[in-house]
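Task: sequence design from structure.
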């Protein structure tokens, strides 16, 4: 007759229980190592720049899982090309690791055309980059607002802000050349105070150039004793200039004595 296990002492039953538990744990850890290939590592191949189909084939052949993490648009990359990967290329990881890919969209997203008119050329460039648009041609038009965007165009026609366009579209910019189209007489500034001269320049769309104020402590109340360009040429003809051009001023604390203009004598002499 076999004796029942319950007839054995308690310590023997406890010993058998611990022994059985140890065997189960050993078998579990051994099977886990077989399933996960514990301790086996591989180097992740670089797939950036490849098409998604090609990248997936390379990674799965090497023993990695592949998932698309994100899709963005880059107009300089091929459609469905891998732009980024995580983990990065050449990292050493365990096999069966998932590699996450960011791919380039095959169709560019649609955005609203921003307002560039009135911005400086530099700010317009930054705005185009922010919206994912490309810089096209830059043309100049006579206007005293130098390098200011006068008009935004697409395909030779003005494009209104808010128009739906594809990201990556080329936008042409019409910029001010810094000078107006029409010529007018150089204003007479000699004899005016500095404040008065500035007002005249601004009223005519002219730019204040270099200011020479030697020995002048308060330029606001100083007088203009010389200007460049002058109102008259050497042969007493009136100088001409355009909006956007600059005028240099020479100041003094003393008011200049203005000589009357020389008028040529056109009367006939016998």
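Answer:
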């Amino acid at each position: 007759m076999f004796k029942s296990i319950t007839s054995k002492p308690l310590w023997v039953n406890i010993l058998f229980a611990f022994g059985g538990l140890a065997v189960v744990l050993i078998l579990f850890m051994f099977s886990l190592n077989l399933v996960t290939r514990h301790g086996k590592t591989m180097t992740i191949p670089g797939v950036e720049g490849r098409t998604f189909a090609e990248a997936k084939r390379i990674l799965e052949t090497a023993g990695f899982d592949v998932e698309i993490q994100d899709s963005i648009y880059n107009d300089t990359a091929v459609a469905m090309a891998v732009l980024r990967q995580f983990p990065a290329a050449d990292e050493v990881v365990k096999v069966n690791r998932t590699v996450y890919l960011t791919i380039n969209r095959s169709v560019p997203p649609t955005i609203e055309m921003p307002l560039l008119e009135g911005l400086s050329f530099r700010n317009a460039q930054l705005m185009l980059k922010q919206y994912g648009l490309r810089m096209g041609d830059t043309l100049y038009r006579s206007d005293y607002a130098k390098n200011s965007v006068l008009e935004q165009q697409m395909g030779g026609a003005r494009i209104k802000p808010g128009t739906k366009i594809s990201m990556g579209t080329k936008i042409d910019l019409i910029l001010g050349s810094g000078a107006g189209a029409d010529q007018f007489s150089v204003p007479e500034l000699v004899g005016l105070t500095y404040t008065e001269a500035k007002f005249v320049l601004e009223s005519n769309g002219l730019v204040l150039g270099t200011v020479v104020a030697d020995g002048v402590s308060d330029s606001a109340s100083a007088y203009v004793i010389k200007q460049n360009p002058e109102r008259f040429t050497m042969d007493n003809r009136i100088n001409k200039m355009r909006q956007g051009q600059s005028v240099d001023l020479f100041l003094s604390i003393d008011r200049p004595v203005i000589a009357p203009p020389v008028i040529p004598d056109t009367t006939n002499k016998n």
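Confidence is low (pLDDT under 50) at residues 1-5.
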